[in-house]
Design a protein that fits this description.
389 residues; alpha+beta; CBS domain Like; Hsp33 domain; 19 strands; 27% helix; 27% strand; globular
Length: 389
């Protein structure tokens, strides 16, 4: 296994994976603490918070302390190109190579979640890694991969999900965590994530859920993903991920590279690859200086890298477009309230004038009116045991 973690530079001076209905089938009893109900990535806050059965964890529901005018959430963002992924082979087909430039994706996540530099770096790495893993492991366009970094550090995550259509989304639970810089002056993502486990959920095209986990060895994301590929997928790989922030914390550049060593690869090829990657302390320097293609040329020098012509499979621009995108919508936000009793819903109407539903994946908000709450069915759906991704 080859591992090349890439720290970033410090700055100068949920609806669930398949949407709410599936998550709702795996309901969890939760309790109120200080007026807030916590369910993983759903937190429900209102003054009279009570014990309740509610769906699993991808939406945050916040009950308004006072009635607010009805309005829709901010306009849904289009699937505009925010990044690109290229792929190819090297060393006579013995190395499989993927590379992604994700600067705008990381910046979109930073802006939506109001992240400070270290959470920005952690989430940016995780989303880039999720995209690379998706294209390494997925066999069909309908698969999805979710990464959960369950460390004991203060960050709470990151959690990222990606799909072969180039979609990615993610979040962290604590958006302003800033542990002291590392001795080398880099952002200390490892301290923010901590020790624990990396949980990987792969939702296959037949709706079968494949789950696996490995121990976090550093919390620096790249090392942990390379370990996962080796232990769970038996795929020795190099994973390089980097996010550099500057100014007031804006993302200057972000991206990543995955190099998979295919079966029967000659030892001399592995040694050459290790030599090329071993002295690299930062992939962001290369990305800034040479761009994505130039970075690959440098890292794979002497290994005869050949980029795949993606235009022949429908990508006219020659790359796979990537974008930050979310599957939440207003109907799913409304469905989230189905799992509250009629009495609790009446309290929302009388005491709070409605409800505000916030998606933890993307930060979009949905204002639910009293009329919409009254339109919900009065009988609570029966929970079923269905795996979730």
């Amino acid at each position: 296994m080859i591992v090349a973690p890439v720290p970033e530079e410090p700055p100068p001076p949920g609806l669930d994976v398949d949407g709410l209905p599936q998550a709702a089938r795996n309901k969890t009893a939760i309790s109120a603490r200080n007026g807030i109900i916590f369910l993983g990535s759903i937190s429900i806050c209102y003054p009279q918070a009570k014990k309740s059965l509610v769906p699993n964890d991808q939406f945050s529901r916040i009950y308004n302390p006072a009635p607010k005018p009805y309005f829709f959430s901010s306009p849904r963002y289009n699937k505009q190109v925010m990044g690109r992924l290229i792929r190819g082979l090297a060393a006579d087909g013995n190395l499989r190579v993927l590379a992604a430039l994700t600067t705008d994706i990381a910046e979109e996540a930073r802006t939506r979640h109001d992240l400070s530099p270290t959470p920005t770096a952690a989430l940016g790495r995780a989303m880039t890694g999720a995209l690379l893993l998706t294209f390494l492991l997925s066999k069909t366009p309908k698969e999805r991969i979710t990464l959960q970094f369950r460390g004991d550090g203060p960050l709470g995550g990151p959690i990222a999900e990606a799909a072969p259509d180039g979609m990615v989304r993610g979040y962290v639970k604590n958006t302003r965590v800033e542990p002291p810089l590392r001795p080398d002056g880099k952002l200390n993502v490892g301290a923010a994530v901590g020790q624990g486990e990396l949980k990987v959920d792969r939702l296959l095209s037949n709706e079968e859920l494949y789950q696996s986990s490995t121990e976090l060895i550093s919390g620096e994301i790249a090392e942990d993903l390379a370990r996962y590929l080796w232990q769970s997928e038996q795929a020795p790989s190099a994973m390089l991920l980097g996010v550099r922030v500057h100014g007031q914390g804006e993302v200057q550049v972000a991206g990543g590279i995955a190099v998979q060593v295919l079966p029967d690869c000659p030892d001399e090829v592995v040694r050459q690859l290790e030599a090329n990657l071993g002295g690299r302390s930062s992939i962001t320097d290369l990305l800034l200086e040479r761009g994505l293609e130039g970075t690959l040329e440098t890292l794979l020098e002497g290994l005869d890298y050949q980029e795949t012509d993606l235009s022949v499979v429908g990508y006219r621009e020659g790359y796979i477009p990537l974008h930050f995108s979310c599957r939440c919508n207003r109907q799913r936000a409304l469905n989230a309230l189905v799992y509250f009793s009629p009495l609790e819903r009446q309290e929302m109407i009388e005491q709070d004038g409605g409800a505000e539903v916030v998606c933890h994946w993307c930060g979009d908000k949905y204002q639910i009116t009293p009329e919409e709450i009254r339109s919900l069915p009065t009988e609570e759906p029966v929970a079923q045991e269905v795996p979730r991704a």
